[in-house]
TrEMBL record:
Biological classification of the source: Bacteria, Pseudomonadati, Pseudomonadota, Betaproteobacteria, Neisseriales
UniProt protein name: Substrate-binding periplasmic protein
UniProt keywords, alphabetically: Signal
Residue span, Solute-binding protein family 3/N-terminal domain: 48-246
UniProt-listed Gene3D superfamilies: Periplasmic binding protein-like II (3.40.190.10)
Pfam families linked: SBP_bac_3
Biological source species: Chitinimonas lacunae
Length: 266
């Protein structure tokens, strides 16, 4: 009898523990090294989301899809949030944003052997009238237009770098880690010919957030529950440690010695 009671109590508490880990649906797409469906254990942003949800007693359930579909799912309340997203005015009219999860640094990539590359980049007016390749949907599109750049739209990030390599674009704007990941994985033989300007695209830091639904049931309470733990994770130094691990995996000592500017920059 006593054993039955003990087992009953254990089962009860076990059930409560499972129930406490509320499942929360999230939409996302492929954006390595931040989000990688086939290697989530190495995806920087996904790992930060996992840690924040764990601290909040929640369990994220990922739905990998296209970026337009991810936004539509958030807007319709089919998922609590999508990630990672930068804040802009158009999105702010339709969505809420979590506390910043990670700070992104966007830079201009160029190809060394192209003679028409500008000698410097200090402000976007330096690229007025020049061809810059990018997929649609990035926060800096309006910035490019306002300063007179000619935008060559591509279907994805890899295609933008291919245009750059072929000389059909003069620069690519991209997050620094994403750019070097794509170059290292898709154009390894040409890696030493790619480089970045020292000046970042934006003087201000570009936080990346969860894009939160206004239609998902209980979204406001979930957001409040998560924001404080997201701040804790960010302040713990975990983002910097994950980025350092990525840079270590991506570094190539032989190339770094011959080409000190090549590869992920500190």
């Amino acid at each position: 009898m006593g054993i039955r009671i003990i087992w009953g109590i254990a089962a009860l508490y076990g059930g409560l523990a499972v129930a406490a880990a509320q499942e929360v649906p999230l939409a996302t797409g492929e954006w390595p090294p931040y989000v990688m469906q086939k290697s989530p254990e190495r995806a920087i942003f996904t790992l930060l989301v996992e840690e924040a949800f764990r601290r909040a007693g929640l369990k994220p359930v990922y739905r990998y899809t296209s970026w337009p579909r991810a936004e539509a799912m958030v807007e319709q309340g089919l998922v609590f949030a999508a990630f990672p997203y930068a804040h802009n005015e158009e999105r702010a009219r339709r969505f809420d944003f979590s506390s910043p999860v990670l700070i992104s640094r966007s830079v201009l990539f160029y190809y060394r052997s192209h003679q028409h590359v500008p000698q410097r980049f200090e402000r976007f007016s330096d690229f007025a009238g020049r061809q810059i390749a990018t997929p649609r949907g990035y926060w800096y599109e309006d910035l490019l237009r306002r300063h007179g750049a000619q935008i060559s739209y591509t279907s994805d990030e890899q295609s933008a770098f291919r245009l750059l390599m072929l000389g059909r674009a003069e620069a690519v704007v991209q997050d620094e880690l994403v750019g070097w990941y794509l170059i290292g994985n898709h154009f390894p033989a040409q890696r030493s010919r790619f480089a970045t300007f020292d000046t970042p695209v934006s003087a201000r830091e570009q936080p990346l957030h969860l894009l939160v639904s206004r239609q998902y049931p209980g979204a406001a309470a979930l957001k409040a529950r998560l924001d404080s733990v997201i701040d804790e994770v960010r302040q713990s130094g975990m983002p910097e440690k994950l980025i350092a691990k990525f840079r270590l995996r991506s570094s190539r000592p032989d190339e770094a010695e011959a080409n000190p500017e090549v590869g992920p920059q500190p």
